[in-house]
Every structure is written in structure tokens, then in C-alpha cells.
Amino acid sequence: MSFELRASLRARNFDVSLSLADGETVAILGPNGAGKSTLLGVIAGLLRPDSGTAKIGGRPLFNLDGGTRLWSAPHLRGTALLAQEALLFPHLNALDNVAFGPRSAGVSKAAARESAGHWLAEVDALPLAHRKPAQLSGGQAQRVAVARALAAQPELLLLDEPMAALDIHAAPLLRRVLKRVLKDRKAIIVTHDVLDAYMLADRVIVVEQGRIAEAGPTRQVLERPRSQFAAGLAGLNLVTGVISGEGITTPDGRVFAGQHDPEWSPVSGQAGVAAFPPSAVSVFLGDVHGSPRNSFAATVTDLEPHGDQIRVRASTGSSAPALSADITPAASADLGLVPGMDVRFVVKAALVSVYPA
């Protein structure tokens, strides 16, 4: 039973169309303010768009086009929204919190509690059944909230950064729980964590400024990104331009040499991108000997620890994207790098992947 949505909301500059196949989990990625939470609010019925339609299978959730308008109430949509905070009822124990959904649907108390026990066991929280929310850790409460959402038997599960409020010990357990329970379900998960996308999602959609910037299978988007946001999540530099024989030519006329990916069949003259890891970038002071193909003047904007390396962020021109280089702390000290310093970035052409945008 598929899900289809098309919605536009002028006040938020939001205009998105998407669909999900039965049993598919899609991760929604994007910067703050991009429209991710707006998307979940529209689907859940908490936010009314100016126009658009949505349906699960053949059943409409809303239709705001044309003369006859339909708008289903949130509790009639067959969706369940799991937010960053568990939002459990404080006066009910975990078992009764989870049983609330089935009870609201008219299921008997005994059957609802039986269902609640099943879902608590599914999320490894059955021993917590008789605890009140105040007696639960953040990770435990969020697992109970997952069980409560699933016990309502939603046709579409919506997750709004469910790991964001958890500590580094609780998040991996919840991620494993979600991987298991989402296996055969339709779900949309909003996240800033690339690990959530890799572990939980069949497909990734990147939203920027209220529009879909790119979409595709998770590994494809994160290994061959086409948007700056996806490239940043994947830890890659991204340069855009027009594909040429050597690589790509940037809008300011610079040629960026790289390796054409034969899998993508690039054609000269079409829009393209060049992606490469910060480890492919070397930093020099002054002129570089040997005339490397990818040598660009840059101004250091920031230095920050990155594992056992120093990540050097630099501007390469007013109209060019910022680039990053990873160098050793010793190299950074030898170069005397500080923000505002003029340097040269040299990128190994053999480590640059060029493919169509």
C-alpha cells in the first residue's frame, strides 16, 4: 500500500512531492529550516498546506485542489508521529502508555494490554512495563514511545529525529531497535545523522529551502552526492560546474580535473559535480612546484580537530564553495596556519570523482 504526497505552503516557501512504496523507509535530510518538520506536520495533519493531495493506498488523507476539499483529522489518518522527546503520559506506566492507542481504537482493555506487552518486548522494554515515565532514562522512554507508536498499527510511521535527545549509549540501542521494527513498514525518518540514513533508510531525500534537492538510494546519494548538504554529511568536498574532457569547468572558469565515472556516462557540456574527500587535499604556502592540475588559491577560514587530523576549512573565492583539507597536527604547526591566512589547496586529480549533476 503506497503513500503519495504533493503539498505547497507559500508562507514557508514549501513545495514538495514524494512517494513511498510499501515497506519502504525514507530518510529526509537537510539543513535547519529546510522544511523537514513542515513535511512531517503536513503528513500528520498538524499543518494545513495551501494546496496539494495525499493518500495512502487509495485512501485520501487530504485533497485541497479543486472545488471539493477534503481534510482528514490527525487521528483518522493512520499515521503515527514520534518526536525527539518521548512525550509519554506521566500518570500512566509504560504498559498503559503503549496500550493507549489500541484502547482509543476501541480494543478491550485486556487485548490492548496484551498488544502493549508484545510491542514492549519488540523494543526490548518489557521489563519496564510497570515503571512510570519519571522512572525511565531518556533511551528507555524513547523505546517505550516507539512501542506506543507501533501499537497504534499506523500505516505510515513518522519519526522526527528520534535519536537527537539521546546520549551516545542510548542512541545505538534505539537505532538497532528501529532497524528491526521498520524492516517491513512504511516510514519517514527526519535525521541529521548519516548513520541513521545508512542503517535505517532504503532511500534518501535531501530537502533544501522547501524543495527536494536530490533523492535516490541511500548509498548512491551519500557516496555520489549532488547537493552541498549531502556532500557535507558524507564528509566530501563538492564542486559544481559543466563536464569537460578533463573533469569539470566551474562557473568562474576554473578547470577542475578528475576521474570520470564510467557508470554514470558523463557527457561533455552537461551539468556535473566533482566530489573528493578532504584527505585528497594538500595545503601549501606560496607557489607549488610541479604545476599540479588542481591548484587553487585559498584563504583559511577555520581550523578544527577531526579525529587525529586537523580539518582546514578555506574559501577559494566569493562564488566558489568552501573546501576542506585534512592534515596532521604537525603539518598544521609547521605551516603556522591561522584563520585569515592565504594558502594554496592542491587536490589530487586521481581522487576526484566526476559525474553528472
UniProtKB/TrEMBL annotation:
Signal peptide limits? none
Q: Which InterPro entries match?
A: AAA+_ATPase, ABC_SmlMolc_Importer, ABC_transporter-like_ATP-bd, ABC_transporter-like_CS, Mo/tungstate-bd_C_term_dom, Mop_domain, P-loop_NTPase, Transp-assoc_OB_typ1
* Keywords for the protein's UniProt record, in alphabetical order: ATP-binding, Molybdenum, Nucleotide-binding, Transport
Q: Which GO terms describe its biological process?
A: molybdate ion transport
- The ABC transporter domain covers 5-234
Q: Does the keyword DNA repair apply?
A: no
Gene Ontology molecular functions: ATP binding; ATP hydrolysis activity
Q: Does the keyword Nucleotide-binding apply?
A: yes
Residue ranges of every copy of the Mop domain listed in the record = 289-356
Q: PROSITE patterns, from UniProt?
A: ABC_TRANSPORTER_1 (PS00211), ABC_TRANSPORTER_2 (PS50893), MOP (PS51866)
Do you know which PANTHER family this protein is assigned to?
A: SPERMIDINE/PUTRESCINE IMPORT ATP-BINDING PROTEIN POTA (PTHR42781), SPERMIDINE_PUTRESCINE IMPORT ATP-BINDING PROTEIN POTA (PTHR42781:SF4)
**Name of the protein in its database record:** ATP-binding cassette domain-containing protein
Which species does the entry assign this protein to? Answer: Paenarthrobacter nitroguajacolicus
